[in-house]
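Blackboard transcription, Thursday session:
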Amino acid sequence: MRKNLDIDVHHLTRVEGHGNIVVNMKEGVLEKAQLEIVEPPRYFEAMLKGRNFHEVAIITSRICGICSLGHQMTSLKATEAALGLKISQQTEILRKILVNGSTFQSNVLHALFLAAPDFLNVGSVFPLINTHKDVVLAALRLKRLANEIGEIVSGRAVHPISCVPGGFTKLPTTDELKILQDRLIKEARPDAQFAIDVMGSLTHTIPQFERETEYISVYSDNDYALYDGQICSSDSGCFPVEKYLDITNEFIVPHSSSKHARFNRSSYMVGALARFNNSSKLLHPSAKKVADMLGLKAPSFNPYMITVAQMIEVVHCIEDTVELIEKLLKTGLRDEKPDQEPTRYGRGIATTEVPRGILFHDYTYNKQNMIMAANCIIPTGQNLANIDDDMKKLVPEIIEKPKPDIVKNLEMLVRAYDPCISCSVHMLDVTFNE
Amino acid sequence: MSKPKVAFFDFTSCEGCQLNKLNFENELLGLLDLIEIVEFREAMDDKADHYDIAFVEGSISTPSCVERIHDIRRRSDILVALGSCAVSGGINAMKNLHPTEWVRETVYGDDKYLFPSIPVQPIRAVVKVDYEVRGCPMSTPEYLHIFKSLVLGRKPEIIDYAVCVECKLKENECMLERGMFCLGPVTRAGCDAVCPLNGQYCTGCRGPVSNINEKGAVDMLKRHGLSTREAVKRMKMFCAYEFEKMSETS
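(Written on the board underneath:)
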C-alpha cells in the first residue's frame, strides 16, 4: 500500500482564476489536502467608498467577468432595498430572463468547454474541434445564443449596461424578443438535447465518489429560484436573507486569499448541485426529464455530478426564458423609466443564485446616497472548505491508483465546482471607519 | 509560413476580457485556423517556452505578479495589453487612492501579512508593452482588428479621438443634453459608444484621449451645471492610476 504522496498542481488549468492543489501524505497519514487560493486580492471596498448609488453596480460588476450579470443583479437589489427604490413587474421579468441567460451561458461554458475535455481524456476543448466537431459547434451555438440574451436585454453580455437601480435605461424591442424566443425553441432546444445525449453517453466516466454535506441555495415556493428567494439549508430549512451572516460565518485560513465559510457542519456546498438538491421539484418538466435521463436524483452526494446538474439547468433556463418572453409579449412592453428617487437610506441586503451558487451583497448608504459600508459573500469562497473536505475523504479512497490518475481525479473534483477564483478574492467586506 | 504561436495570460482582474475573446463564437474557429494557441490557462492544460504574440489581461498588484510579467515579456516577441486593468490599472487602481496598509488591515485584520500587496500598476509600468486594447471590458471589434493585423504582420491602427465622435455617428441623443453626467467628450473612442447606445452615460472606462481639450471640457460641464470635481472623481473610477501620473507630471 502507498504510504507517501506528494502532489502540487501549480495554477490549476481550466478554471477561472489562480489556485493550486496541494496534497501531502506521509507514512500513511494525510497531512494536507487543500486548494490554495493564490489569486491577488483586489480590495473592492477601497473602490466603493463614497461612490454614488448609481455607480455601485458598475463597480461590483467588475468583481467577476463571468458572473458580472449576477453581481449586478444582487448589487441592484441591495441598493434598491437600502434606498427604497421600486421596480416594476416588467423589470423583474426582464431581470429573470437575464439571470437565466447568464446561468445558461456560464453552465455551457463550464460543462461543455472546461469540464468536457476531462471526460474525453484531452487537455482542452481545442483537440475536440477535430474529433467531436458536431458537439463543439453545437456548444458554440448555445454559448452564442446565451450571450445574445444578455446582449439583447442588457446591451452587453460581459458587464451589462442598461440594468440600473430602479429599472432599465433601454428596453429590448418586441421584435427582438420574438426572434429570441423563436431561436430558443428552434436552435437552443435541439442543440442542448444533442449535447445532453453526448453527455449521457459519457456519464460512466464520471468518478463515483460520495460525501454527504450541507447544501445551501436560494429557495422560493413559486419557482426554481435563481433571481430571488430565501436562504435554504438542507440541514436546517429556510432563513430570511437578512440572516445571511449567521449562515456564512466566514473565517480566514492561511492557504487561501479567499475567506472560507461554514454553517451547521465543517463546510457546506453551494451551486448547481445544491440548487438541484434543494429545488429539483420546481424544475421545468423538460429539465426533470433530462435529470431522469442522466441519472441524477435529489439528493445527490457526488460533487462530480455538479457538471450534470449544470446541463439540467441549461434546459430549465431555456424553457423558463421561452415562457417569460411569452408573458412579456402577452402584456406588451411598456416604455418605463427607472425609479431613481430614493425614499430612504440605510442598509440593504440581497441574494441571488449566480451560476456557482448563492451570492450576497449588503450595503449601507448615507443620506447623500453614498456607500458607507459594503459586504459581498461569494459562492466560490463558500465552497472552498467543502472542496478541502472532499479532498480529505477522496485521497484515501483512491490512494492505490497511479499518481497521474490521483492528480486527474483531484483536478476534476476542483473543476467540477467550477470555481470562480477572481470572484472569491474580491475582498469586499468591511465597514468604513469614518 | 508556420502559424504564429499565441498565448494568453491573466493578472489581477475579473477575467472578463479573457471571457470576451471566447464570446465571438461565430468567428472563433476561423481565428483558430490562423494561429497556434500554445498557452491559455483558463481553457487548456499546455504550457510553452516562447510566444510570438502574448496577450495579457489584468493589473500588477503583488510581488509575484512582477516576477511573472518579466518572465512572460522575456519569452514574447510581441506583448499586447488587453483591457483597462492591463492598460491603465483600471478599476483596481482605485485601491491606490487609500493607504495600502489601511486597505490590507481592513480586509484581513491581523492576518494581513499572509497576503502581500503592492500599489496597482498597469503592465506598461513594469515591462514594455507593444500594443494596447482599451476598455472595460475590452472592445471586441478593436481586439479583432489588432489580432488580425498582428497575424497578418501589419501595424494596427489605434484610435485616439473622443467617444462623442462615435456617439454622433450612431445618432444617439446626447447624454449631457438628457441631463446625465457623461464622460464621452474626454474619453477615448473605440467602443462604438456602446453605453450611450444603451441609454447609459459614458463611465470613461477607456481612459482619456491623449490631447484632452481641457478648456472645452470644463466649459461644457459648466454649461450643463456639472462640477469639474465630480468629473475628476468619476474619471478616477477606471483611470485612477493615469490621473495620479498626470498630476505628478503637471
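Lecturer's comment: The domain at 44-431 of chain A is CATH 1.10.645.10 (Cytochrome-c3 Hydrogenase; chain B).
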